[in-house]
Amino acid sequence: MGIYNVRAIFDQRLDPASAAPLAVGFSGGGDSLFLLKAALDLGRPVLALVVDHGLQAGSDRWTAEAVAKARALGAEAQALVWTGDKPKTGLPAAARRARHALLAEAARAAGAKVLLLGHTASDLAEGAAMRAEGSSVSDPREWAPSPVWPEGRDVFLLRPLLSLSRDEIRQALADQGETWLDDPANEDLRYARARARAAGAGEISPMEATSLSPPCFTVDAVGTIRLPRDVAAAHLAAALLCAAGTERPPRGERLERLVQRIRSGETFAATLSGARIEAGDDVLICRDAGETARGGLAALELAPGQAGIWDGRWGVTAGDTALTVTALKGRAASLSAADRARLTAIPASARPALPLISSPLDGPKLATEGEARARLLVLGRFKAAVGLCDQESVT
User: How far from chain centre, in Å, is Cα 187?
Assistant: First the structure.
């Protein structure tokens, strides 16, 4: 596909009329340097985001050098630091999650809808080697919603270098007279990716995206999703996460068992990944109100003018007074007659997990999409997860 295909991917995925900044995950290494220079050639504002995980001695110096390099090239640049205690086990996965969260939050704060990442064909090969060693790392996709939630809401990832090997990229940079930083973490054999790289994992071509038929679905004003009985497993997994507002996908074997039950025609109710599933004529998926016993649906307190995310499903903004958002479960009697009447149109299984908004001046009120202080996040997230938003201009 070659070096010049990068521009073709930009033309396909980015909105040519947009003046919004493009965020670039930048480490100062060869891959991200090549990507940053390609993004700067587009003529749009570019924000280079450099993450300091704090896991290597001298990482602050490395970060400062990367920020300086990005600014010298003409980009805005910002350092992001992963603070707090680091886990003793599962560190690579925790670091990935922290990195994605920092990048997504900074991109959204800057007004960027697209975050460019410099994964290559070499990363695909190394990922395959890591999975053979037992890692859970997944293959990066060219275009995908941010994998973290809710930090990654409204942010899409674009990886335009997946057709290029690391050697091709470095040769192109050398031809331009460029130099780049070499991250010492890439040689730390405690980590699976460094071992795969040291073992010389071969180059592989990026796999074509799995072709799935567009899903038939409905999402109502409170975030309940309905799917057909012949739903694809990938679409079902997306529905579970989106309807529940959660982030961790169901394990493969549990998802497969659920798909088999749904396709068998069995009528049943079940829970998985924080969602409740009711299979009848179709498949209804909503938030499992029983998650309150495991810390889900926790109350959200908002000061005047503050905005927040409740239960991963609702964006809520306080006006002139403070707000408290709780689950409706056990509080339906406190609603007005009008709100109680509205409940009759909502599936009974979805009612207990509805958001109840209270303020010092108003009694408890039921929140639904269109209510001035609340915005349902489920529909947009589900459309992104199943591939219905495949370029910057589609929202």
Answer: 28
Radius of gyration (C-alpha) of the chain in whole angstroms: 23
Can you tell me the distance from the alpha carbon of 216 to that of 204, in angstroms, rounded to the nearest whole number? 34
Nearest to 107 by CA among 47, 51, 147: 47
16-54 burial: b if 16+ Cβ within 10 Å, else e? eeeeebbbbbbbbbbbbbbbbbbbbeeebbbbbbbbbbb
Residue with token string 């295909």: 5
State whether the Cα torsion 146-149-152-153 is positive or negative.
Answer: positive
The per-residue pLDDT for range 198-211, each reduced to its tens digit, is 555 555 555 444 45
Round to whole Å and give the CA distance between 328 and 145: 30
**Amino acid 360: pLDDT:** 86
Q: Give Cβ neighbours of residue 53 (< 8 Å, ≥ 6 apart).
A: 59, 82, 95, 98, 99
Contact partners, residue 334, CB within 8 Å, separation at least 6: 356, 363, 364
Query: 22-25 and 46-52: which strand pairing?
Result: parallel
In tens, the pLDDT along 55-112 reads 888 899 999 999 999 999 999 999 999 998 889 898 988 999 999 999 999 999 999 9
Token reading at 311: 């239960």
**Rounded Cα gap, residues 16 and 10, in angstroms:** 9
Rounded average pLDDT over 319-345: 93
Mention every residue, 6+ apart, whose C-beta is less than 8 A from residue 273. Answer: 237, 240, 241, 244, 246, 248, 249, 250
> What crossing angle do the helices spanning 30-40 and 59-73 adopt, rounded to 10°?
30
pLDDT over threshold 90, residue 187: no
Q: Is 312:377 a contact under the CB 8 Å cutoff? A: yes
